[in-house]
């Protein structure tokens, strides 16, 4: 016969138990309370004996007063102890969950951008909410509750041994046998459970996409298609849940049947003994009561395994993330970056996201205060190139220097503090307009925030919001236009006031009039700062000191506007595409 399989303790579980260690005083206190509960339950069972013997058989009037009083006292003590142990156990459980959740979120925040581009947002959310809650259930209801149940059973078993030792021995060989199928069920539940949790995460990420991207669903008439896809996912969860249910609901009737066998045996054997006069009727009743009291805690314990298996499946999903390490790390002895404008130097830089090289042998030196414009066809590698500067990704080969220091030799926080970015897609948080602008600058004064908004030509429309600068952006929903979002992002970068600026299509959603205005603000801002500007519209880069043409992962041309036109190469082609044939090669870009 197989041994009862005990879940193997992996390093992950040990680490989780490390969380428990920190709360050991509370855990010990609650264990003490649980012991009191167990002792009182055992006392209750035991009191049946004197009650039957002294009151019903001997009809002792003093005991008629004393025993009910004792019962009352036992219940009061048991109630207080149950409250204490329940409160403390849940406190410990919830505390562990809170710390685990914070640790998970904290860890995710420290993972590199590549992690977030690979994983689905909905799936990650599901781990922090759904999976952590499953562990919470394991701790609060199962593991913690089971401490009390175990104590109670030990107490009751002691009582039965004290009363009729021989019968107790017979009766309790049955229980371990009962445990075997229950543990087998548990293993199966755990396997199914992991599948269910993955299915739930999958549904979450589906929901995230189709609800946040609902505009496209509608525009392409895909409502029915998405309904169908959702129904399939729902159905999959239903099937998995039912698979788990089939196993779970079987364990309870099985327990009851085994319990019934035990009780029948006790009545048969105990009855014999009482009839023979070996034991009193009171002793027998007390024994039977103790066995009866065992039913509840045993039933709970049998469910413990299911809950633990579910919990362990969730633990795995959480540790899959916790064990992922960031490849963007701080060096052991970081070099600090000197203040002032910076020189940025790309030296033989290669870069790939996965398999194929996206940037090939990039050599580029940008002087302090120089404004570099990056142009080129879509997919050429412009965004990838500037992403390397704040170490969103690390180079695959070569190096990038800031003032002669390899950026991997500096602290990531230090490096990023030097850089203000306006990304290609405007990203705003569900917070007030003010806080969106002051993001990353908690000490910004009201005056500075308004100035930044004014310089980005965002002040006017923000003041037109229902509550001005205090209007939560989320409340506006999609009422913000693309250009308005972009201007808030520009204000945010302006406020950061960093020596290096990266503007990735920062004005692409603006009309020519507001672009001209914002452009002026940006030009003022660029003064004295090392700047990378990515632009599709060549008309907007007239102020650049140097233009870099990126195509197919390489820098194919660089120089000033007229030099590049004269060369009649890539830049010339781009220019032709935008302005047609009607220009004279010497003309400067139209800057409105
Ligand atoms: N996160 C990513 N993972 C894998 N490949 C990527 C990723 N981001 C971009 N790429 C690939 O890298 C190449 C360069 O993309 P990049 O975004 O740098 O181009 P771009 O010049 O900024 O284009 P655009 O002008 O359209 O913004 C493309 O082939 C693109 O498919
Ligand atoms: Mg880009």
Can you offer a commentary on this structure?
This protein is an alpha/beta fold and 592 residues long. The protein folds into three domains: 13-200 and 247-322, ABC transporter transmembrane region fold (Up-down Bundle), CATH 1.20.1560.10; 339-418 and 499-592, Rossmann fold (3-Layer(aba) Sandwich); 428-497, P-loop containing nucleotide triphosphate hydrolases (Rossmann fold), CATH 3.40.50.300. It is 64% helix and 10% strand. The strands form two sheets. The protein has a six-stranded mixed sheet with strand order 6-7-8-3-9-10. The protein is elongated, with a radius of gyration of 36 Å. Residues 1-5 and 584-592 have low confidence and may be disordered. The structure holds adenosine-5'-triphosphate (ATP) and magnesium ion (MG).
Task: Describe the strand arrangement of the main beta sheet, using strand numbers.
Answer: 6-7-8-3-9-10
What profile does the largest beta sheet have? 6 strands, mixed
Report the strand count. Answer: 10
CATH topology term of the largest domain: ABC transporter transmembrane region fold
CATH superfamily of the largest domain: ABC transporter type 1, transmembrane domain
- Portion in strands: 5-15%
Rounded radius of gyration (Å): 36 Å
Unreliable stretches: 1-5, 584-592
Helix count from the secondary structure assignment: 19
Summarize the structure.
The protein has 592 residues and is an alpha/beta fold. Helices cover 64% and strands 10% of the residues.
Structure keywords:
elongated; 4-stranded antiparallel sheet; Rossmann fold; alpha/beta; binds adenosine-5'-triphosphate; disordered C terminus; 6-stranded mixed sheet; ABC transporter transmembrane region fold; single chain; 3 domains; 19 helices; binds magnesium ion; 592 residues
